[in-house]
UniProtKB/TrEMBL annotation, chain A:
Top-level lineage group: Bacteria
Lineage of origin: Bacteria, Pseudomonadati, Pseudomonadota, Betaproteobacteria, Neisseriales
Species for this entry: Aquitalea magnusonii
Entry's Gene Ontology molecular function annotations: ABC-type transporter activity
Pfam families: ABC2_membrane_3
Subcellular location(s) per record: Cell membrane
Protein name: ABC-2 type transport system permease protein
Keywords carried by this UniProt record: Cell membrane, Membrane, Transmembrane, Transmembrane helix, Transport
Regions that span the bilayer: 170-194, 224-244, 250-274, 281-300, 342-361
From TrEMBL, chain B:
Name the UniProt record assigns to this protein: ABC-2 type transport system permease protein
Stated family: Belongs to the ABC-2 integral membrane protein family.
Ranges where the ABC transmembrane type-2 domain occurs: 132-370
PANTHER family reported for this sequence: MEMBRANE COMPONENT OF ABC TRANSPORTER YHHJ-RELATED (PTHR30294), MULTIDRUG ABC TRANSPORTER PERMEASE YBHS-RELATED (PTHR30294:SF29)
UniProtKB/TrEMBL annotation, chain C:
SMART domains per record: AAA
InterPro entries: AAA+_ATPase, ABC_transporter-like_ATP-bd, ABC_transporter-like_CS, P-loop_NTPase
Name listed for the protein in its UniProt record: ABC-2 type transport system ATP-binding protein
Molecular function in Gene Ontology: ATP binding; ATP hydrolysis activity
Length: 365, 374, 587
């Protein structure tokens, strides 16, 4: 029976790869996303504009402004001359952050008195603005410490493990391995079965000696193969083009890709079993995919979510897979470390596949 | 192009029946938006309210204990204590804590010696750079507090401080800006994704051929696709606004008519793009894939909705200017949280208008009156 | 000016002058000139790929001709499209209906599009609903209608606004004889009212009834004029070989080998032959048709003339026969009951689609299931091949229920679906490899099987072409090849020749005849009565029940009456269905 399975898979691959158009559809979006997203999907703040209303003009205040301007976050500094102007630049989104330095800043600092500067933050983009505020705060604290009269009692030594310079790309690329493959794999599985049903070839398969298990496997394996190939392309680009370190083993990466593919294929088959045409299959996969990406922990950490959403996230295969891929790339995960995420993937795969199989039996009759 | 109201109404009615009778279009237009609003509103919390921090306390001295107490008292930190550094490092590797503070056995002694020889070591999980930044700044804050309390016994640290005032969103709830942004994603889904299927479906099922043999004009064909989906988009928009303001408590400070205008212009571009893909490919599968890549993903990634456009490289920034969602997101965030700030709105309205004219014009030009594409 | 001249030009609704059309460099129509008159049905006849649809689309202004001139009501269909569309009704092949709209909603849509409003709309809805007998179903979704009802609704939508010209593209594909006859009656009453009707078809029995025909082949016009004139030219060349003793299939095969015969087909127990030349008969002795066999002249058909125009039929020898080994049934299977239905019943909710149907099929027999659309024929067929579960009763193939049985049982059957379910985006070679592969052929055996099929069905020039782009006739060949690759002793055919032209159909049946002689058992559903004639036995299904069963001749004999002394298969079909209706009303 291996040969029949091989025949099914070969047919699926031929259908995917035969026309130049469908070949392009498999590869072009991956390359495009690979080119754009690592640069776009970043929560860092760079190249932002800082507005400063310096009411002091003393040497210390000027030095402080220069230090702020020297950071990567604020190459542009907008010097303002009134409180009103501060309001305006924030309103018009000309600056993310506006800092007002009080008149007596230099004097009080020299005298060792406490003094407060004010920051106005654009709450419309509170995340970026907060991050920008964090950068500014660091500069100011550093500056204050240097101008302090008392010796510090201790030093805080921050060491970023796994990603010493907090390169955002190191975080994005492993996540993209997971996200981009999701689209390809789900589309291939969910839509191809719906198409066979529309074109009547599905009945042709049902009267053949193939059992439903084989037909499903014939749909599942090509989807997994697509996930694997796309995933490997992105992983290779991550390592060789974007220079992300790879600290785990290739074998484990491939193993977990297969487990992830299996769980995706389960969802794909379930969707296609529930839909009666390609349009429904497409919209159904889409309705699955977008929450899956948002709840995966890629856009925001899962631990920040309220409990109900954390529970949903637990059955989202993407959230487990992202942890594994990041672990393999950056944290040197071996099988032992990956296992707490691998078994949920397998459990998800087992239950969705079983459910899809039952639906399939019911629908095929 | 001549236009007959009767024919237009007939075609629009037909389209509406098809929308209403297809469960998948109802799913996409009404169920998914609410789902997405809630997920974006509550699922994405970028502020990292309470980070899980591990503390390895190898020193039982007073100084170390005071620091540990200060850490535990911080509202931003959920601390767990352990004396084994290896165990904590493993927790960090598995992601159960996002940072580890290590106080070595000689910490208290070195603090008493002065000269800043004592070191507080903080390990962060660099695999989550955003969280790592938060961890570092929270611990930094606690460290400053601890130092100030030690020195003078007072709560306020001396020296220079920076007081933050958040405008528009004083409590810095990410929901308040993520929910308006996610509306742009939802409108993209309805405008571009759903419509990418509708013309292609008519070609695939052979109904386009029958339509073309009737006195229908190009303008009627086009409008009969635009109007129902525009209304559907507007209905979904109204629902989103209601859910966002009434249920989720997101403020809406701008006026409804500006919101209506901005949404209409954005839907113009989205519908234009979706219909163009559908008309040129005549194949549902391919059109939908293109719509996913050309409309949906950019609306999430390149619109400035989650990711800051100014932080992107110049080449990528240049690309974002081509994406209508960029202008829509900016206008929505301003309208919801700040109100009518015309300098921001006008620019966005202008670009949305240009983009709608471009995509709809291109679609009108590519809409065929014959089977051979002219 | 001569008044009669004016009258004759006025009678011409469509004038084609040297029309040519090419698609991406491939010629589809070549220098076509013809006139289409008002008041008659003009048949547009030709095999698949002859250019019929292209020509209709050119006239409807849906395509722009590459060269030549087309005048419809004196207007250029492209330049004066807006004016013309008000006068023109065009029904495309899939009827152009919105399946998710109800009958009334479809009608309303097209009424609005064609500018039929107010009282005129009420009047035409009533007239058309009565005309098409759809008044009871106005609320039903078009997708839930049977094929025949869809066809009528499509016609009704096309007729809104009383067009002066009606273009129908293969309106009868997949539609049963009763609906076909009704449609014909409706359209001819329209033509009698002065409408110009162009009816495209690949069925020549339909074309025979047209006032005029345009016979097309490979984009060229072969004949234009009255079908009668063409049939008359065949006078004396059509014969019926009757009272055959022995195997009539082999008699047909031998007859087709004779140089005197250009075409032949089974007709019940008799064999119908077309001679190359009138009076030059084949040697009766060499046909080995038995001592009582005799040749009788019969009325020529348009199909005879058509095949003659194309230079003769495909011959009776199927290269498949040489390739296929004798069909062997597994041990222990009763050769008299290879396929058995016992009190077979299928319910969908309250609706009984198949109602206690019984039949048994012997080894080497062709059993045909006939019946109007929606009568339960497909349901019965699907239960037999295990695609649909049985509500009660039993469907057994070689003693097994295919739905329950292991895949070994399904290995024994070949299945060919209605729409030639091939993978349209795979090449011909890839389709062959796939279907041989899932039936367990591999390595050298697989290569040999594929090569044999390519040779037998002459698929070599198309091997790398996408199956979806093949001409229909070749799609059918490919579908048959895919169904036969594993040499099954049983064959299930679901409307295997739907929409296919006569020559391809002949060829198809010569293959099936060859297979049957090797002992293959065939179960077939069909809407085409000349196909029913090939069956050894027929079961006529109506309203879920088997209302008649027997040989084609037996069914015909059941309806012999004073008005119908020599009924055709179609007559028998219609009469039996009507008789059942009467009996039902009586009880």
């Amino acid at each position: 029976m291996w040969q029949r399975l091989f025949t099914l898979i070969r047919k699926e691959m031929q259908a995917l790869l035969r026309s130049p158009q469908s070949r392009r559809l498999l590869i072009a979006p991956v390359l495009l996303q690979l080119l754009l997203f690592p640069f776009a999907a970043t929560l860092e703040v760079k190249n932002s504009t800082l507005a400063v209303f310096n009411q002091d003009g003393g040497a210390a205040s000027i030095e402080l402004v220069q230090r702020l301007a020297a950071t990567q976050a604020f190459p542009h500094v907008l010097m303002l001359h009134s409180q009103q102007a501060m309001q305006q630049v924030i309103d018009r989104q000309q600056a993310l952050l506006a800092i007002s330095l009080p008149q007596d800043l230099s004097r009080k600092l020299a005298a060792g008195q406490s003094v407060a500067a004010q920051a106005i933050i654009d709450g419309r983009r509170s995340n970026s603005a907060q991050i920008a505020y964090g950068y500014a705060l660091q500069v100011i604290q550093q500056f204050a410490a240097e101008h302090s009269h008392q010796a510090p009692a201790a030093r805080l030594v921050v060491q970023n493990l796994y990603n010493p310079n907090l390169e955002y790309r190191w975080f994005v690329l492993p996540s993209l391995v997971a996200i981009i493959t999701t689209i390809g794999c789900l589309m291939v599985t969910a839509l191809s079965l719906a198409r066979e049903r529309e074109e009547g070839t599905f009945e042709q398969l049902l009267v053949s000696p193939l059992t439903p298990g084989y037909i499903m496997a014939g749909k599942a394996l090509p989807g997994m193969l697509v996930a694997l190939v796309q995933g490997c392309i992105i992983a290779a680009a991550a390592v060789w083009v974007y220079q992300v370190p790879f600290s785990g083993t290739l074998g484990l990466l491939i193993l977990s890709m297969l487990c992830y593919g299996l769980s995706l294929v389960g969802f794909g088959l379930l969707i296609s079993a529930l839909s009666s045409n390609q349009q429904q299959a497409f919209l159904g996969s889409f309705a699955f995919m977008s929450p899956a990406v948002i709840l995966s922990g890629y856009m925001a950490p899962v631990e920040n979510m309220p409990l109900p959403l954390r529970m949903v996230s637990a059955v989202d295969p993407l959230s487990h897979f992202i942890i594994i891929v990041k672990g393999i790339f950056l944290k040197g995960y071996g099988l032992a470390e990956a296992w707490p995420q691998l078994w949920p993937l397998l459990a998800i795969a087992a239950s969705t596949l079983a459910l899809a199989y039952l639906m399939f039996l019911r629908r095929s009759h | 192009m001549s236009l007959s109201l009767r024919r237009l109404v007939a075609l629009c009615r037909k389209e509406s029946y098809q929308i209403v009778r297809d469960p998948s279009s109802i799913l996409i237009a009404f169920v998914l938006p609410v789902l997405l609003l809630f997920i974006y509103g509550y699922g994405i919390n970028l502020d990292a309210n309470r980070v899980r921090l591990g503390i390895v306390q190898q020193d039982g001295g007073v100084e170390a204990s005071r620091l540990v107490q200060t850490l535990q008292a911080s509202p931003y930190i959920a601390a767990s204590l352990s004396s084994s550094e290896a165990a904590m490092r493993q927790q960090l590797q598995l992601g159960s804590v996002r940072g580890v503070v290590i106080l070595r056995s000689d910490f208290s002694a070195k603090v008493r010696q002065g000269q800043g020889a004592a070191a507080i070591q903080l390990l962060t999980d660099g695999a989550e750079p955003n969280t790592a930044n938060f961890v570092a700044s929270y611990v930094q804050g606690v460290f400053q507090l601890w130092q100030a309390q030690r020195q003078s016994g007072q709560a306020e640290p001396a020296g220079l401080t920076l007081e933050a005032r958040y405008w528009f969103n004083p409590t810095t709830v990410s929901r308040n800006y993520l929910v308006p942004g996610s509306i742009s994603v939802i409108m993209t889904i309805i405008g571009a994704l759903l419509t990418s299927l509708v013309v292609a479906r008519e070609w695939e099922r052979g109904t386009m051929e029958a339509l073309l043999s009737t006195p229908v004009t190009r303008a009627e064909l086009l409008l009969s696709k635009i109007i129902p989906y525009y209304l559907l988009g507007m209905a979904a928009m109204s629902m989103c606004v209601l859910v966002a303001t009434l249920v989720m408590g997101v403020p809406l400070r701008g006026s409804l008519w500006v919101l209506f205008l901005v949404t209409s212009l954005f839907l113009g571009s989205a519908l234009g793009l979706g219909l163009l893909l559908s008309t040129t490919t005549r194949n549902q599968f391919i059109a939908a894939q293109f719509a996913l890549t050309a409309a949906f993903l950019p609306a999430i990634m390149l619109s400035g909705f989650v990711f800051e456009i100014r932080s992107m490289p110049l080449a990528v920034q240049a690309v974002t200017y081509l994406i209508p969602a960029r202008y829509f997101v900016s206008a929505l965030q301003t309208l919801f949280q700040a109100g009518e700030i015309w300098p921001v709105l006008l620019i966005n309205l202008l670009f949305l208008l240009l983009s709608a004219a471009f995509w709809l014009g291109l679609t009108a030009w590519r809409t065929p009156r014959r089977l051979d594409g002219n | 000016m001569n008044p009669s001249m004016t009258a004759s030009t006025d009678a011409i609704a469509i004038r084609l002058q040297a029309v040519s059309h090419t698609f991406a460099g491939r010629p589809a129509l070549c220098e076509l000139s013809a006139d289409i008159r008002r008041g008659v049905i003009t048949g547009l006849v030709g095999p698949d790929g002859a250019g019929k649809t292209t020509l209709l689309r050119l006239m409807a202004g849906l395509l722009k001709a590459s060269a030549g001139s087309i005048r419809v009501e004196g207007l250029d269909p492209v330049m004066a499209g807006d004016a013309l569309r008000l006068q023109l009704g065009y029904m495309p092949q899939k009827f152009g209906l919105y399946e998710d709209l109800s009958v009334l909603e479809n009608l309303t849509l097209y009424a609005d599009l064609r500018g039929v409003t107010g009282a005129a709309r009420e009047e035409s809805f009533q007239r058309l609903l009565a005309f098409t007998d759809l008044a009871r179903f106005t609320e039903r979704l078009a997708g839930k209608l049977s094929g025949g009802m869809k066809q009528k609704l499509g016609l009704a939508c096309t007729l809104l606004g009383s067009p002066r010209i009606l273009l129908l593209d293969e309106p009868c594909v997949g539609v049963d004889p009763i609906s076909r006859r009704e449609l014909w009656r409706m359209v001819s009453s329209l033509a009698d009212g002065g409408m110009a009707v162009l009816w495209s078809t690949s069925y020549l029995d339909e074309a025979e009834l047209c006032g005029e025909v345009l016979l097309m082949h490979e984009g060229r016009l072969q004949y234009s004029g009255s079908p009668q004139a063409l049939m008359d030219s065949m006078q004396g060349r059509s014969l019926l070989l009757q009272d055959i003793a022995g195997n009539r299939r082999q008699v047909l095969q031998r007859a087709l080998r004779s140089p005197a015969v250009i075409d032949g087909a089974l007709q019940g127990h008799a064999v119908r032959l077309v001679l190359r030349e009138a009076g030059v008969l084949p040697d009766l002795a060499s046909l080995q048709a038995g001592p009582d066999a005799r040749l009788q002249q019969v009325k020529p058909r348009l199909e005879d003339a058509f095949i003659d125009l194309l230079g003769g039929g495909p011959g009776g020898d199927s290269p498949l026969t040489e390739h296929m080994p004798p069909a062997r049934l597994p041990e222990g299977v009763d050769a008299d009951a290879v396929i058995v239905a016992e009190q077979l019943t299928r319910r969908f909710g309250d609706f009984v689609a198949t109602d206690h149907v019984d039949f048994r099929i012997r080894r080497g027999e062709i059993f045909g299931l006939l019946g109007p659309n929606g009568a339960g024929k497909s349901t019965t067929f699907k239960m037999m091949c295990g695609l649909l579960p049985v509500s009660s009763g039993a469907a057994r193939v070689m003693g097994l229920d295919l739905q329950q049985s292991a895949s070994q049982a399904r290995q024994q059957i070949g299945y060919m679906a209605q729409k030639f379910a091939l993978y349209g985006n795979l090449s011909v070679a890839q389709n062959l490899e796939f279907f041989s592969g899932i039936y367990g052929l591999s390595g050298a055996r697989q290569r040999a099987a594929v090569a044999d099929m390519v040779r037998v069905f002459a698929l070599h020039p198309f091997l790398s072409m996408n199956a979806g782009e093949l001409p229909l006739g070749f799609k059918q060949r490919l579908a048959l090849a895919c169904a036969l690759m594993h040499q099954p002793p049983l064959l299930f055919l679901d409307e295997p020749t739907s929409g296919v032209d006569p020559v391809s159909r002949r060829e198809f049946w010569s293959h099936i005849n060859g297979l049957v002689d090797k002992g293959v058992t065939v179960m077939v559903t069909t809407h085409f009565m000349d196909e029913a004639e090939y069956c050894d036995r027929i079961g006529l299904v109506y309203r879920g029940r088997m209302i008649a069963a027997g040989t084609p001749d037996a069914l015909k004999a059941m309806v012999v009456s004073a008005e119908l002394p020599d009924p055709s298969m179609e007559d028998a079909f219609i009469a039996l269905v009507e008789r059942d209706d009467r009996q039902r009303e009586a009880t």
